[in-house]
């Protein structure tokens, strides 16, 4: 019975340890997901604030300004401003101007937001121009008298949040992540966002348990309402005052969590079962009863000694009475030398109190069990060990000893600490990025707009008084302000590469080039350029939006730096390489001297004067940053007067995590 009891204890301990470890890892994943959602919302919030602060007296100017702001987030369908009565007055899609949105939840809730909160995220609604589901995020506007004066809002594709959800869960069958409103309406989910978007999970789910328990973070083992699979859930609620209290849920199927434990438990149960059958057979032979008991004890010891886990048993006065070989070996001792020592001789001094408290819990009802993580002085130095303790009783039921089973978790603890460090760095990075985005989109550009306005005012008032030089000076100043504005916008675009993008997945190069060509249609027609695209372009692994930007920049560069005395020809092809594909964008333009092959990829580097070619010198720097974020490299092969070949590498398989 002792053998079966100890084996059962070890199996149960392993089960609890596996679930606890998975819950801790999943809680860290949910924390990271919450930070990413918060960062994405901050970008949209900054954009809405910029629209809210812009003058509304010039409809055309505000529409252009809103369209420019919307380009910061590729997933934005449209942006709009509605007055206090709910009528759309200005929109990036002019055909919806005049529409009454006063009865929509994104208008009603924005109007009654509590103090300190300035954006509202609605569940997906079928109000897009094509009837597809979109996420509406709105911000209330305030008039000069401080009263409600309408809303500014943007509509987002489901992929805005779905991409980051896909990047955090394990990908195994039954795993997933979702984002929901405080009322339980699903904003998006991965997998199958279109199936679940807009559905409510407030009742009969992990969501309800999270809400009932209170607090910002919880973990549960629960049968999912969506697919009937028992899962481990980690749930967090956004608590930043200005943000809506959205709920992040990340889940793994319990079956996958327990796969390794199940294999180990079946093996142990098989061995113990065989031992029990042997013991039962021997007990039938009364004359060999003592021999049978001794054989059983030896088999039990053999089973314990073959475990990699540390097993130790000690009396209530802290003296060790049993230790397996794994325990003794880890501490550089013989088993005989460990017997009689105090458990305190093995545990790091700073962890004595926590260990003693856990031992005290073992002797108290109702569980008579306890867990603790403590550092042990071992051969290789201090190591973290996770202990599961249980009470051992004599025939009368009195507790006489404590048995503990431990497993070295040093690597897991170090990974946990690294994750905590990464989270702190992520917090700092998000704050810096938010500050940069605000300065780039608002503080830096506001003085430029003022300079341009006053230059125009000077010209209107004193045009008759200015001579030719005076008019020329005004033109120079206005051109400088315009170029500075372009540089600020380009710098903001450069900073977004790799930070705000869709998840990496399979992307058709042919589709990417087709979209880039359509975006450049007017420039291609005006320049008389011919675009030759290879018919067998591959499918690669990448970010759809960033690869469009890459191809658009390279084709646009070919158009800009074409030879004036011959028709422009741009050829796009791809060939197999060792790690995936090498893509080429070739042209017959003015070419580049070898001395500048590296310099052209640096930010704000120009080889020509602005009178010859417009631009800020950031396009190829963006190209290099996009390619490097995809794990590839980009270079140029060129001959002045003949043309250039820009080449870059892309993978065709997802990167293997180490």
From TrEMBL:
Keywords: Cell membrane, Kinase, Membrane, Phosphoprotein, Transferase, Transmembrane, Transmembrane helix. SMART domains: HATPase_c, HisKA, PAS. It is a multi-pass membrane protein. InterPro entries: dCache_1 (IPR033479), HATPase_C_sf (IPR036890), HATPase_dom (IPR003594), His_kinase_dom (IPR005467), HisK_dim/P_dom (IPR003661), HisK_dim/P_sf (IPR036097), PAS (IPR000014), PAS-assoc_C (IPR000700). CDD domains: HisKA, PAS, PDC1_DGC_like, PDC2_DGC_like. Residues 439-654 form the Histidine kinase domain. Its main location: membrane. It is found in: Cell membrane. Residues 296-366 form the PAS domain. Its EC number is 2.7.13.3. Residues 369-421 form the PAC domain. GO terms for cellular component: plasma membrane. It catalyses: ATP + protein L-histidine = ADP + protein N-phospho-L-histidine. It comes from the Bacteria. GO terms for molecular function: phosphorelay sensor kinase activity. PANTHER family: PAC DOMAIN-CONTAINING PROTEIN (PTHR43304:SF1), PHYTOCHROME-LIKE PROTEIN CPH1 (PTHR43304). This is histidine kinase. It comes from Paramagnetospirillum magnetotacticum MS-1.
């Amino acid at each position: 019975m002792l053998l079966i009891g100890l084996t059962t204890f070890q199996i149960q301990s392993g089960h609890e340890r596996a679930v606890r470890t998975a819950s801790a890892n999943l809680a860290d994943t949910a924390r990271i997901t919450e930070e990413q959602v918060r960062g994405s919302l901050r970008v949209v919030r900054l954009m809405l604030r910029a629209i809210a602060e812009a003058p509304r007296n010039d409809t055309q100017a505000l529409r252009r300004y809103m369209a420019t702001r919307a380009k910061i987030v590729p997933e934005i369908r449209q942006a709009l401003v509605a007055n206090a009565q709910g009528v759309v007055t200005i929109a990036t899609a002019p055909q919806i101007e005049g529409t009454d949105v006063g009865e929509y939840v994104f208008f009603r809730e924005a109007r009654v937001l509590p103090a300190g909160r300035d954006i509202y995220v609605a569940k997906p609604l079928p109000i897009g121009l094509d009837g597809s589901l979109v996420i509406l995020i709105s911000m209330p506007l305030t008039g000069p008298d401080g009263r409600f004066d309408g809303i500014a809002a943007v509509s987002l594709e489901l992929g805005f949040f779905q991409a980051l959800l896909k990047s955090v869960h394990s990908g195994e069958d039954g795993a997933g992540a979702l984002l929901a409103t405080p009322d339980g309406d699903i904003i998006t989910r991965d997998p199958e966002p279109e199936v679940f978007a807009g559905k409510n999970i407030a009742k009969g789910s992990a969501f309800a348990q999270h809400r009932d328990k209170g607090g910002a973070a919880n973990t549960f083992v629960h049968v999912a309402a969506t697919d009937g699979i028992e899962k481990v859930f980690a749930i967090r609620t956004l608590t930043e005052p200005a943000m809506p209290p959205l709920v992040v849920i990340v889940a793994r199927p319990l079956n996958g969590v327990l796969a390794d434990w199940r294999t180990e438990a079946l093996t142990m149960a098989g061995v113990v079962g065989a031992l029990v059958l042997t013991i039962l057979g021997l007990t039938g032979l009364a004359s060999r009863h003592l021999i049978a008991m001794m054989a059983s004890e030896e088999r039990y010891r053999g089973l314990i000694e073959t475990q990699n886990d540390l097993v130790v048993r000690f009396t209530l006065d802290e003296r060790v009475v049993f230790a397996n070989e794994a325990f003794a070996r880890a501490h550089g001792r013989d088993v005989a030398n460990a017997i009689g020592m105090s458990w305190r001789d093995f545990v790091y001094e700073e962890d004595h109190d926590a260990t003693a408290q856990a031992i005290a819990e073992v002797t108290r009802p109702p569980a008579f069990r306890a867990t603790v993580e403590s550092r042990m002085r071992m051969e290789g130095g201090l190591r973290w060990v996770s202990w599961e303790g249980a009470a051992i009783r004599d025939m009368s039921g009195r507790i006489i000893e404590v048995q503990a089973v431990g497993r070295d978790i040093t690597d897991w603890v170090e990974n946990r600490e690294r994750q905590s460090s990464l989270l702190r760095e992520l917090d700092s990075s998000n704050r810096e990025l938010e500050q940069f985005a605000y300065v780039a989109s608002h503080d830096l550009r506001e003085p430029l707009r003022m300079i341009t306005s006053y230059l125009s005012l000077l010209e209107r008032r004193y045009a008759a008084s200015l001579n030719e030089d005076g008019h020329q000076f005004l033109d120079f100043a206005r051109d400088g302000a315009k170029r500075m504005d372009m540089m600020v916008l380009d710098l903001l675009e450069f900073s977004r590469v790799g930070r705000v993008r869709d998840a990496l997945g399979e992307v058709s190069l042919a589709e990417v080039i087709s979209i880039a060509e359509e975006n450049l249609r007017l420039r291609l027609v005006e320049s008389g350029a011919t675009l030759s695209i290879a018919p067998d372009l591959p499918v690669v692994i990448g970010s759809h939006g960033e690869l469009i930007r890459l191809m658009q920049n390279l084709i646009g560069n070919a158009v800009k730096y074409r030879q004036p005395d011959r028709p422009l020809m741009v050829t796009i092809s791809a060939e197999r390489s060792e790690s995936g594909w090498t893509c080429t964008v070739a042209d017959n333009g003015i070419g580049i001297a070898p001395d500048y092959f590296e310099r052209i990829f640096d930010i704000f580097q120009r080889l020509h004067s602005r009178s010859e070619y417009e631009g800020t010198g950031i396009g190829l720097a963006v190209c290099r940053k996009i390619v490097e974020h995809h794990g590839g490299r980009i270079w140029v092969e060129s001959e002045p007067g003949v043309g250039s070949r820009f080449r870059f590498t892309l993978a065709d398989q997802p990167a293997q995590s180490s």
